[in-house]
Amino acid sequence: MKRDLRVMTTAAMFAALIAIATMYLRIPGPTGMYHLGDGIIYACALLMGPGPAALAAAVGSAGANLLLGLPQWAPWTFVIKGLTAAVIGAIGTRRPAWGRNLAAMAAGALITICGYALATWVMYGWAAVPVEIYGNIGQTGFGIIIGAVLFSVLRRQEDWF
Predict the structure, then answer these.
(1) Cβ of 101: how many Cβ atoms within 10 Å?
(2) Rounded to whole angstroms, how far apart are CA atoms 159 and 72?
(3) Residue 63's Cα: distance from chain center in Å?
(4) 19 near 63, Cβ under 8 Å?
(5) CATH class of the domain whose range is 2-160
(6) Rounded Cα–Cα distance for residues 48 and 30 (Å)
(7) How far apart, in whole angstroms, are the C-alpha atoms of residue 12 and residue 96?
(8) How far is CA 56 from CA 31, 49, 116, in A?
């Protein structure tokens, strides 16, 4: 019971951090703004595993879309970021197995890139897809770097989980 409450509270905290990082912690890039939300999703998935991380990523990212005035992206984001975190959490490990964790984050990045390419194609047509893919390659690459650094710091806090 106590552990369940701790996991739910930590997942809710990560959802809030993901939303804040997506909305406010942004860096200009060649195709727009890169945000730190993906990095938090990746670290959260490695720390918490597939279930809680998927929920935190889906709610935090889709919530950020809604708060930013982009409701058309919220359903897509909910599914894409939830799947991304679930795959990273299922493949990765809380141990410092960097090869495995980098492979997990790369698999999650591929889901993000392909998912948003599909969403862009459905909503805006094929002509918009290459720009979306290019931007998401940069965004997810940036996310992997942030996620790896954040994971290496937070994994030392064993009493969180």
Answers:
(1) 26
(2) 39
(3) 13
(4) yes
(5) mainly alpha
(6) 32
(7) 25
(8) 26, 11, 19
Each domain of the chain, given as residue ranges in start order, spans 2-160
- Work out the number of other CB atoms within 10 angstroms of the CB of residue 153: 9
- Coil, strand or helix: which one is 70? coil
- The C-alpha atoms of residue 94 and residue 50 are separated, in whole angstroms, by 12
Closest among 119, 151, 150, 147 to 133, alpha carbons compared = 119
Helix ranges, the chain (H): 2-24, 37-48, 50-67, 74-91, 98-124, 129-154
Query: In angstroms, how far is CA 128 from the centroid of its own chain?
Result: 22
pLDDT of 30 over the 80 cut: no
Q: Enter the tokens of residue 115.
A: 């998912």
Distance CA 147, CA 109 (A): 11
Q: How far apart are CA 11 and CA 69, in angstroms?
A: 24
Give residue-wise pLDDT tens across range 1-18.
567 888 899 999 999 999
The single-letter code of the amino acid at 90 is A
pLDDT of 50-65, one tens digit each? 999 999 999 999 999 9
pLDDT at 159: 60
